[in-house]
Design a protein that fits this description.
Elements: E1 2-7, H1 19-22, H2 27-40, E2 44-49, H3 53-66, E3 70-73, H4 82-89, E4 95-99, E5 121-124, H5 129-143
Parallel strand pairs: 1-2, 1-3, 3-4, 4-5
The structure holds 1,3,4-trihydroxy-5-OXO-cyclohexanecarboxylic acid.
Amino acid sequence: MKVLVLNGPNLGRLDLRDSNVYGDMNFAALSAYIIEEGKKLDLECDVRQSDSEVEIIGWLHEAADQKLPVIINPAAFTHYSYAIRDAADMVKSILIEVHLSNPLSREEFRHTSVISGVADGTIGGFGPDSYRLALIALRKMLSK
Ligand code: DQA
């Protein structure tokens, strides 16, 4: 089963971000980790990253059209992109929101997610393991 693992702005530059918040894995290593963890669960992860809202919306349309499950870290778009929310709402397969950090323990503007309301669930605060936990949850939901 193919899964789209979508990542929003600045996640492609994880190695340059605050390592106290985001750890020390760069995006290439994170992608490889997600792909490996997916394989263990018989999930084929197509990991993508974009700084462009338009491109992410296009990928969500693709998931909606092809009925693909999605794991998405919308990054800063989490907090204000109604356009991504509306696109995520069209995904009728499973959609799980993930975050490396725990946005609720950070600045107040990060306490709002406009995506959570259209996601099946949200996992944050576990670093790269947030993606692994999302894959496990997805696998269970698909087997139901
Ligand atoms: C993030 C949290 C967001 O608040 C932030 O803008 C990001 C990354 C996370 O994975 O912890 O870019 O989504």
